Amino acid sequence: MPEGRPTWRTSSYTGTETCIEVASDTPGCVMVRDTKRRAGDTIVVGRSAWSSFVEYSKACPSAGPPQRSQQPAGGAC
User: Fold this and answer.
1) Comparing C-alpha atoms, which of 44, 51, 61 is closest to residue 2?
2) Cβ neighbours of residue 34 under 8 Å, at least 6 residues apart?
3) H-type helices in the chain, by residue range?
4) Alpha-carbon gap, residue 27 to 67, rounded angstroms
5) pLDDT, tens digit, for every residue of 35-73?
6) pTM, full prediction
7) Residue 46 and residue 31: Cα distance in Å, rounded?
């Protein structure tokens, strides 16, 4: 995990039902953690992977997580 203290934030879409927090102020990576288990594990991904995830989420807002048999080919929804 990167050094220093990351600045954690939640999405404005979560309202009072927060689920995850994201820290994107660290060089070269984005960190994700469970809001209810802040002392638990943290997922660290590269900026490119995070960017792809966010773009996919914007393109498919109601799709939810794809099932193994329903994974879109080429990023289509």
Assistant:
1) 44
2) 19, 20, 21, 40
3) 47-59
4) 32
5) 888 888 999 999 999 999 888 888 876 655 555 555 555
6) 0.65
7) 9
